Amino acid sequence: MQNRIPLIVLLAAICTFSLTVSVDAQIVPLNVCCNPVPGTNMIHISFIDPGAYLSFDVSLNGVIVMVLPASAPLATITALVAVGGNGTHTICVQGTQGPQGSGQTSCCQITLPTPRQFMRGDSNDDKTVNLADAIASLQMLFGSLPMTCHDAVDANDDGAMDLSDPIYVLAYLLGGGVAPPAPFPLCGVDPTPDTLICHITSPCP
Fold first, then answer.
1. Which CATH number describes the domain made up of 115-205?
2. N or C: which end of the chain has fewer CB within 10 A?
3. Helices (DSSP H) in the chain: which residue ranges?
4. CB contact at 8 A, 168 and 155
């Protein structure tokens, strides 16, 4: 009997510790992190699974857009959330089906700037594409001119800035090559996702 008493005390301590861990996990904030994916309307979210829920509701601007299953305690859960357009968006994550029902809501706010309008191939930003743009592209690529709009320099719209871009412009102007992809011959926003950006452009007509 005397040997059983310490064992009972030990089991009670273990149960108390387990209960404390469970309750603590229930109230630990998820601390969701949000990062925009360059060139897209996708937001990458991540948070730590506290090990207290069976699933997580993900909402965008107050509307649930997906339900993520639990992973493992202290594992990182990630997902991509598509937003409708530019502006400010609020993404929230809430643990559900926990020991006390739903948990605290953790939110982040992301502002996607309105993309700048540009004309593809118009490297020198004079709102026309001519030989001066091929020359400006070469100067920018070799460092003698600053790049103000990477998308405009990317004349062939392959998502990169290299020698193929001024060659593409010259082929179009002198050799009857294919015209630059949109936006061209008028200004507009880039219809294809990539990691290139426009820092500065003059107003489009």
1. 1.10.1330.10
2. N
3. 4-27, 131-141, 150-153, 164-174
4. yes
